[in-house]
Amino acid sequence: MTHNIDDRSLAVIVLAAGQGTRMKSTLPKVLHRIGGRPLVGHVIDTALALSPERVAVVVRHERDLVAGAVVELAPGVVVVDQDEVPGTGRAVELALAALDDFAGDVLVLSGDVPLLDADTLAALLTAHRGGDAAATVLSAVLDDATGYGRIIRDADGAVARIVEQKDATADEASVTEINAGVYVFQAPALRAQLALVGTANAQGEKYLTDVVGLLRQASLPVAAASAPDAAAALGVNDRVQLAEAARLLNARTVRRWQLEGVSVLDPATTWIDVDVTLSPDVTVLPNTHLLGATSVATGATIGPDTSLVDCEVGEDAVLRRVEANLAVIGAGVTVGPYSHLRPGTVLGAGVKMGSFVETKNAQVGEGTKVPHFIYLGDAEVGRNTNLGAGTITANYDDVHKHRTEIGDEVHTGSHTVLVAPIRLGDGAKTGAGAVIRKDVPAGALALSVAPQRNVEGWVEKNRPGTGAADVAAKARSAQKADDGAQEENR
Questions:
Q1: How far lies 217's CA from each of 52, 139, 164, in Å?
Q2: Tens digit of pLDDT for each residue in 363-409?
Q3: C-beta of residue 352 within 8 angstroms of C-beta of residue 370
Q4: Is residue 388 packed enough to be buried (19+ CB in 10 Å), middle (13-18) or exposed (0-12)?
Q5: CB under 8 Å to 330, separation ≥6 — which residues?
Q6: Residues with active-site annotation
Q7: Overall fold of domain 262-446
């Protein structure tokens, strides 16, 4: 949903230059993912929902990696490189320069605060413009504010300054109202005060927060608006906070789908990415993960213990204990338990797929039965075919993958091996245990039967001293004695 605040122009600056050392990761902090998107992706999506005139993202650490992800997520954004001068103030200063002579309102967001929603930011902008403030800060009240910058107010309750944790006195550190790292500035006032910000602080950085004090010294009004949900305003600095942000986002996503008519039996064990699409009357059973761009149509039941990544599921399908990736499952299909659908799998309407089946790059026609212990790789199967238990397509010759084609109304016997490339014509059948190396014409029965041959005494001769040899010798001796007794009685 987009928000058109009013006619005043808006630019958004997203700060994504930091390394995030507390994550202890080779991956830049803003690229860690929750809900199927990187942290900075959530922030950019929220920014775009406000319909801004311009969006700039400031990058530095692992510049190419972050910039590449940003451009892929939102091709229209401006990527700004931070120089050697550290600090959020310098990052915003460079972004302003990239925005040329922009003179509207500038919303500054942090790339590691993924849970802020567009409604909260729209309310912040409305408060900022309604009070005609030079700057408005988003604040939050926490029981434990350790690690966050504090909002210091004057005797009249107006914002006097923002003090970082490492620069705070004992009295300042006792304040529980924190700076959420989200600001709205009038661009001319911001541009003028940023030029005056220095680096005389514990970190030696050019703090954006110093602009607040400078605006007050210039007798310009600074306001603060409290976030209705303090947890949503908090940043992600380590893996603990990353997991908590993922949990909160997932709870929000699950609740949204429940209110749209989806039955989620156990929200605590159900994970749904933000790009998933669910229709009314879908049922999601416990321990189910719906990830990527998965879509599920009306009446389908997914789970329990099922993981779908970038899959399309048709109406009234039932998937139990299934692992699937880039698969298309048609209407009325049943799959599982314990089946694995790999990329390129397409199951037509009404397909019945049983337990311990694996498919890869396989298309299965309507009404076909793929019961259990089957592998279909690089295969095309027709309509109303029945594959016997243990049927496999031998698609790989150590060098190349080959394709198997199976027609309509085909019936393979149990433990049939189809050595690709091969085609079974419409209505063809195979015998149990057949190894099929040649095409089978329509309506033909394919057998690969050799006469059974028993080699007497083989175990005793070739496996002497084993338990099998011992019991075989005793059995042979007993049989010989029995044969002798029968001979005497004749």
A1: 30, 21, 19
A2: 999 999 999 999 999 999 999 999 999 999 999 998 999 999 999 99
A3: yes
A4: buried
A5: 314, 317, 346, 347, 348, 349, 350, 351, 366
A6: 372
A7: UDP N-Acetylglucosamine Acyltransferase; domain 1 (2.160.10)
